Structure formats: structure tokens, C-alpha cells
Amino acid sequence: MTQWEKPVLTLKNFNKTFGNGCSFCKDKPENLKGGCCPKCRTIYACRDVSLCVYCGEVVGIVGESGSGKSTLMQALYFDSEPTDGEYYLDAYKNGERNIFADSRRQQKWVRNMLLGMVYQNPVMGLKMHFSAQSNIAEKMIAAGNRDVHSMVARGNDLLERVSIPPARRKDNPCNFSGGMQQRVQIAKALANEPPVLLLDEITTGLDLSVQADVLELIQKIQRANRNSILLVSHDLSVIRMLADRTVVMRNGQIIEEGLTDQILEDPQHPYTQQLVYSLL
Amino acid sequence: MIKVENLGKSFYIHHLKRSIPAVRGIGFEVRAGEFLGIVGKSGSGKSTVLKSIYRTYLPEAGQILYDSAAFGTLDLVRADMRKMIYLRKNEIGYVSQFLNILPRRSALELVEKALWEMNAEGEEANRIAKETLRHFGLPEALWDNYPLNFSGGEKVRLNIARAVVKRPRLLLLDEPTASLDDASKYKVREAIEKLKQNGTTMIGIFHDLVFMEGLCDRIYDMERAEESVPPDAQPFAHARSS
Fold first, then answer.
1. For helices B152-164 and B122-135, what crossing angle results, to 10°?
2. Helix axes B182-197 and B152-164, enclosed angle (nearest 10)
């Protein structure tokens, strides 16, 4: 039981603002309008966000566009710098070192070795004009691998797992369908067997049967590797299917969190209630 | 095994700006191996009680003391979310009349998935899953089929199989037989009887009082808010022939 008692990922008091703030909005959240200062136009994209993900757990994040979900994911993957906050991974220095405060070099290492990211838009996650194989190799080279044979073998193995046929593995992802691109992204995210996967709207824009393929794949991977997953989606049925716990965000803040079925059946916050009532 | 004390729950609906009361002052106790039946008319809050135990609903008042194998006695109203997830995966099962299916998963896979959550793997999970489906009389031809195509009775039996395969210490049955015909109901009843013989503690809601006859050790009436021994504990055979 000790294993799941200790969080794999911990984020504490994370803040991200775009702009410097002014005397009107600094430390006065009541003056903000929808996460934005009406006087200096500073945007408070994430405010005081704290969350934990435990071993083998899937945590869902829901919220409307502009609620700060992607800002949060980008900071966790070091795509953007936080304004302040603390970030710990159990697999990194025993979870005792705030990675936000570490060097850029260390952050890069964490990003390559301990995290896997799948973006909504494959253009963000893939080099579109390099072959599917090379995309995976890129991630492995970043992790220090220099052995071509082992990289090709690993690439083949991963692409096999995400059902990319051998004949297409040397093709560039720009010539793939949306579903295939998403699967290559997933394979790339898994290249270094990271303990934590960050999935940002991975099924948005895919048709139903392809969506089911991708979700099935994620479940298979999660079961085989016991990954911890942070999953952003505005599709409540995806959240219902995958997430053990769910966090609801609005205007850059966490407004509610609970067991997924509790969030869906007994929502407490007015916004969560509206969200659930909107479910088709 | 479980003791519910003074449980209260209402739903605050923000767009109506008012609270809708569901249950108040509910209290009962279920000992290990017992079957408690909850009766009451629609809207009296039977499901609310079960969902509060399972933490699908957040109760506002009272406590639910549960003797967990892993954590000792704990109050399910206030238990840590992670502990609740553990209990759901390992100790407490919930069966409703609705089958929460996953896209493109066969019946067999659904039952196997339940076992994976408890860390049973591969061959062993496959064997136990098949055994359980056979046990609950789901025809072998359906095992590899998607439950979307199942009849109501088959879905319920799959639902029960999925919960029971984990051998829960406490099983919550939320009207699993609603909308089933008599033949299917009888099969479900058989399944529940088998569980009872195995010593599973159960709390069940059934609309159909005839169905509950001889099955429950005690009855909790929502309207009168009291427990009683079923007055007319006749064998089910009598009900079937009528």
C-alpha cells in the first residue's frame, strides 16, 4: 500500500501569469474578471493550482476553453516557464527536489526521461517532415541513446504496438491521417518508458471509431506499464471512461475535485453543474 | 461490517437556487454475511443511500462506518479519495441495472478488466473470468461479443459477474432486476443466492417485493425509517409458481 500512498507527481501552488500585474490585481483575486485584470490586462492563466497523481492512476482535468488546462500541461512538460510554484516527481531525486527551481538542463532531462506528452495537435508533438521512425529515434537520442540498431528495433516495436503497418513506418507523419499521427505521437511519448504521461485533448477532432482506437490504446498501455496519467479533455465521456479522479478547472483555478462518478453525478460547484447538465 | 448513522443528503441545484432534500436520519447496521433489503417507493431515497455508501454522492450529515480489511474501521463519508478508490477496486462492489460499457470491449474483456484492477493477470484472469461468466449462466457464444448487443437480462448478469469476480466483501445492489422479465429475474436471483452462500455481505434495493422474499435477512423501510425481519419469509418457489 505504501506505493500508492506516495504521489508520483506533485504540483504545489502553481501560478502562471501573462503580464506583470498591477497594484489593482496583485494579490487581489476578487478584482479579476474571468482570470484577467481589467486595468493592466494581465492574464492569470493558472492560480494556485495544486494536485497530485499517484502510481498507476489516471487523473482527468476538465474545464472550458481558456480555463488554464493546457497552460498547466505546458508548464508540467516545461514548454513554458511557471510564474511560481513547486513541482516534484517521485522518480526525480526521490521527489525531494523542486524541478521548477532546477536548471534548464535538468528540466530537459526530466522531460525526456520521465515524461511523455501527447498534444491535441500532432504538429506540436511530431516533426512532420521526419519519418515516424526518426521521430521516435529523436526522443531516444535526446535521452542519450546513440545505438542505431537498438533505436530502430525499439521504434519498430513501439510502432507495432500502436498499429502503424511496417510499410508506413519510414513515411513522414505529414502524409498520415489524423488518427495515425496521434498514434505515432503516443509511440513517441512512450519511447523512453516514462512513468508519467501527459495527454492533452488527444481524441479531440478524431472521428468516433478512431477515437475508440486511441482510447483503447491508452488503456492497453496504461495497464501494461502502470503509467500515471494526467488527462485533459473537455469530453466528459472520455473522462468517465478513463479517469479515476477528476479535477474541474475554471478561470485558472481548481474549483472542484472528486471521484469521477461523483463529479458527474453529484457536482457541487455551479459551473460543474452547468457542465454536467450540458452533457448530451 | 457496515453501520450507517443518521445519514442525510440533499442536492443543492444552483440554477434553481434551492436545495432538494433526498434522505434524512437514515440509520442501519449490516453484519458480515447478512443481506439487508431496502424498500420504499420511488423517490424515497433508496438509491441515494447506496450511492452515498459508494461515494458517488457526497453525504452532508451522518457517518458510514465500514470495517475495511485494509484500513480497519473508517468513515466512508470522510475517507480519503485514494482510500475510496482502493476500496472500490478491492472491497466494495456496486451493481446497477445500467451496464457501463466501454467501447469495443467484449463481455470477457470487461470481466478480465475488473480482475486486472486487482492485479490478477493474463492466463489466470482469463480463466477466472470464464469461470465467472459460466457461473452466472452467460452463454459461451456471447463471451466474445460486445455487450451493446446483449438482452437486458444478459447485461445484468454480466454486470453482476463483473462486480462479483472481485469477490467483494460488501456488494451494493441497486435494483439490478428492474426492467427484467421473470425468467431473467430468476437467473439473477440464483446468482445472488450463490453469493449469499459464499458469505458476501449485501445491501440491495429491489422494487419487486416478491423477488426479495426469502432472500433478505432483514428489511429496512425508507418511509418508516426502521429495520424489520421480513414478516413473510416464504421460499421463493411459491412466488415463482404464482
1. 130
2. 10
Give phi and psi for A26, each to the nearest 5.
-65, 125
Which residues does B220 contact at the CB level (< 8 Å), separation at least 6?
B28, B36, B37, B38, B39, B226, B227, B228
CA distance A19 to chain B (A): 34
Using an 8 Å CB-CB cutoff, list chain A residues near B116: 223
Mean pLDDT of A126-145: 93
A17-74 pLDDT, tens digit each? 999 988 998 888 888 888 899 999 999 999 999 999 999 899 999 998 889 999 999 9
Please, which pLDDT band fits residue B241 given cuts at 50, 70 and 90? very low
Comparing B31-45, B94-108, B128-142, the range with the smallest average pLDDT is B94-108
Distance in Å, alpha carbon of B225 to nearest chain A alpha carbon: 24
Single-letter amino acid, residue A148: V
pLDDT, residue A225, reads 87
Ordered alpha helix ranges (H), chain B: 46-53, 81-90, 107-116, 122-135, 152-164, 182-197, 209-212, 236-241
Top-level CATH class of B2-241? alpha beta
Q: Which residues of A touch B84 (CB under 8 A)?
A: 259
Q: In this structure, what C-alpha cell is assigned to residue A4? A: 500508492
| Residues from chain A contacting residue B81 (CB–CB below 8 Å) | 245, 258-259
Closest Cα in chain A, distance from residue B207 (Å): 22
Q: Do A244 and B85 touch (CB under 8 A)?
A: yes
